[in-house]
Specification:
Blueprint (H helix, E strand, L loop, with lengths): L6 E5 L4 H12 L3 E6 L4 H10 L4 E5 L5 H14 L5 E4 L15 H29 L2 E6 L3 H4 L5 H21 L4 E8 L5 H4 L3 H9 L9 H11 L11 E4 L13 H6 L3
Parallel strand pairs: 1-2, 1-4, 2-3, 4-5, 5-6, 6-7
Helix pairs in contact: 1-2, 1-9, 3-4, 4-6
Amino acid sequence: MKFDGRRVLITGAARGIGRVTATVMAELGADVALFDRNEAVAETAEQVRHLGRNAVHHLVDVADHGAVADAVAGVEAELGPVDALVNNAGITTNIAPLDRMSPEKWQLELGVNLTGAFNTIQAVVGGMAERGWGRIVNVSSAAARGGLHSQVGYASTKAGLLGLTRNVTVEYAGRGVTCNAVLPGMIGTEKVMAMPKEIFDQAVSQSPTGRPGDPAEVAHLIAFLCSDVAGYINGVDILIDGGAAMNSVVLGSRRALRERGE
């Protein structure tokens, strides 16, 4: 599985799954464009260069349609047309029961997690279709299927990504473009590993594997879906959770855990 000569755009690339995906793609021979609001995205770009590949990065809010369009134009001027897009940008910081979720926070999650993916897809898919080849992978979440306690905005927007994925397939499959979604479960990113111990342990205990996933495991799945050999896989969502969906995983705050007697 090689990406020699391919150009891959990854959003949310400052850390976690996005950063690891960037290095995996570089190891496979891709040149990489990186979007994030976090200045640490420059460190990801430097890691890619150390692997011998070209990298450019832009500080951009994917929820801003105009900013995304400008940044994609910059990438195409610097690297060339985007062959593959990985929509990894997402926020998970708004923790509140549905009846206490503020409209402002709801809109924030909608903007980053769902509208952001729409913006980036719209900016690149036309060119992919004209060239007759393109790969789009949307990083959703296992929460898209089962919900997530006190994270209605996150779960709803990640579910929305599945509808977006299928619609891109319906419109562009006949023009050489694939669009698929990956649904990570408990993955050992920096943020997950910093969770309160009782919440972390409770979630991990529900998985048959007894461990969180490695970000590299997600990155290699994404890379496969972006490859030539995955050309007949289109419009699907792939769960990568170590089998946790076989059990009932309910995450929440310390208080919520106490109230449920867990």
